[in-house]
Amino acid sequence: MTALYVLDVPENTSVAKVAAEDPAVTVGKIGPYFEIRADGPIVIDRRATGCRHAVWYSCVAGVGGGRIVQHDKNALQVDPV
Question: What domain of life (predicted)?
Answer without folding.
Answer: Bacteria
